[in-house]
Amino acid sequence: MSRAAFWQGFRDCSPFIAVVVPFSMLFGVVARDAGLDLLQVMAMSVLVIAGASQFTALALLQEHAPVFVALLAALAVNLRMALYSAALVPHLGHAPLWQRALMAYLMVDQAYAVANKTFEERPEMSRADKVAYYFGVMVLICPFWYGCTFLGALIGTAIPPELSLDFAAPVCFIALTAPLLRSLAHVVAAGVSVICAVLFAAFPAGLGLIAAAIVAMLVGAQVELFLNRRRERLA
């Protein structure tokens, strides 16, 4: 792998540490407050590595929902990773199976957003450089996620509520999404997803988010097709 591309990915993803740290600490604190012991908290973070899914499962468990319902809800929330994987196949699908398995395990929102943006903006990157870049992005985020979850679990409820660690999640997703809104279709899809997420909030087991994402993708695709046909008529 290209060492330069690896370290470039490492540097490009470094700003997200500012939100990964409090977000992962918050999960550790909330999980301990919900009754999980230290081993359970760390097992969940290491096996899942997905903050939104972990918080979803934890919230359902706190409401005494059956374990299989919590697992299904977490899976539904985490289905966006399948979309991320499909988008990265043209860039990373050539990698050996063991590398692709490791990429899938370590994939997080930040890694996908940074890598996909770079791959689209730099089509001249070689296959080896793309793999190296992606690993550089991933290896920065995940150790902080593990370590700060552990720290949050140790500290537990000792963190005063006025620190407001829950700001990290929305700030992180805003930072991930904003740079990707580069066309009218992107903006329309984002707007539709927000509206539908609110309208579908009553759906059980996190399915409202999945339904909102599907509707937004369909609307965005139709806007893109409309704009392409309009450009062809004007050409």
From TrEMBL:
Q: Which Gene Ontology cellular component terms are annotated?
A: plasma membrane
Which Pfam families does this one have? Answer: AzlC
Q: What residue ranges are annotated as transmembrane?
A: 12-32, 38-61, 68-89, 131-157, 163-180, 209-227
Membrane topology per the record? Answer: Multi-pass membrane protein
The record's subcellular locations are: Cell membrane
- Report the superkingdom from the record: Bacteria
Which Gene Ontology BP annotations are present?
L-valine transmembrane transport
**Cross-referenced InterPro entries:** Brnchd-chn_aa_trnsp_permease
Q: Does the keyword Membrane apply?
A: yes
User: Which chain positions lie within coiled-coil regions?
Assistant: none
Signal sequence, renumbered to the chain: none
What are the record keywords, sorted? Answer: Cell membrane, Membrane, Transmembrane, Transmembrane helix, Transport
Query: Ribosomal protein: present as a keyword of the record?
Result: no
Principal cellular location given in the protein's record: membrane
Q: Which family does it belong to?
A: Belongs to the AzlC family.
Name of the protein? AzlC family protein
Q: Which organism is it from?
A: Salipiger mucosus DSM 16094
